[in-house]
Amino acid sequence: MAKGLKEGDLAPPFALESDGGETVSLKDFKGKTLVLYFYPKDNTPGCTREAQAFSAATKKFAKLGASVVGVSKDSIKSHCSFRDKYSLDFPLLSDPDLSVHKAYGAYGEKVMYGKKVLGTIRSTFVIDKKGKLAKVFSPVKVDGHAEAVLEAIAETLG
Predict the structure, then answer these.
(1) Backbone torsions φ then ψ of 64, nearest 5 degrees
(2) Do the beta carbons of residue 131 and residue 31 sit within 8 Å?
(3) Farthest-apart Cα atoms in the chain, separation
(4) Strands 92-94, 133-137: pairing kind
(5) In this structure, what are the phi and psi dihedrals at residue 137, rounded to the nearest 5 degrees?
(6) What pTM did the predictor assign?
(7) How many CB atoms lie within 10 A of CB 1?
(8) What is the pLDDT of residue 158?
(9) Is the pLDDT reported for residue 157 higher than 90?
(10) pLDDT, tens digit, for every residue of 47-61?
(11) What is the per-residue pLDDT for 1?
(12) Catalytic residue (choose from 16, 36, 47, 152)
């Protein structure tokens, strides 16, 4: 589970630049359910599969009243090419200084190829209409993850 954040806690506020050219903040989703997911890097195999799965499920998320937003440290330029290459239909936010990653506990020590490294911890947070963490997934296994998030929303908020 992410650094001290647990289900029922208030979601840390954020305001980040999006691939759409505007600033997106937690306040924008007041009264709505938000799926905020952190991923390591645009155009890498796992991150691409995860983004495509979330994108394929956006209509299902919308039926449950939920919006999906992806966050990585990549630049807006990188996000735009990633979005266009894979026809992603949800906002990608840039967190170059990792401040939001750290606020959510989505950055820290992890094991990669048998070595301890500092990096993005693939994590997903379902934030309810009141701004509280309804569900925390950390660390995340990519395959089947979007479906697991859909199921969790249907169970906890449906």
Answers:
(1) -90, 5
(2) no
(3) 42
(4) unpaired
(5) -115, 110
(6) 0.93
(7) 12
(8) 58
(9) no
(10) 999 999 999 999 999
(11) 40
(12) 47
Beta strands in 19-132, from DSSP E residues, in sequence order: 23-25, 33-38, 66-72, 92-94, 107-112, 115-120, 123-127
Q: Domains of the chain: which residue ranges?
A: 15-156
Rounded to whole angstroms, how far apart are CA atoms 12 and 63?
Answer: 25
Fold topology of 15-156: Glutaredoxin (3.40.30)
Tokens 């090419």 correspond to 81
Give yes or no: 80 in active site.
no
The owner of tokens 């693939």 is 122
Is residue 64 within 8 A of residue 158, CB to CB? The reply is: yes
Predicted confidence (pLDDT) per residue in 82-135, tens digit? 999 999 999 999 999 999 999 999 999 888 788 898 999 999 999 999 999 999
With a pLDDT cut of 90, the percent of the chain lying above it is 88
CA distance 50 to 91: 14
Pairwise pLDDT comparison (40 vs 3), residue with the higher score: 40
Please report, for residues 91, 101, 116, 156, the alpha-carbon distance to residue 4 in angstroms, rounded to integers and kept in the order given. Answer: 26, 13, 20, 21
CA–CA distance from 107 to each of 38, 39, 55, 82, 120 (Å)?
A: 9, 10, 24, 21, 4
Which pairing describes strands 33-38 and 123-127: parallel, antiparallel, or unpaired? antiparallel
Cα separation, 40 vs 117, whole angstroms: 13
8 A C-beta contact, residue 149 and residue 60: no
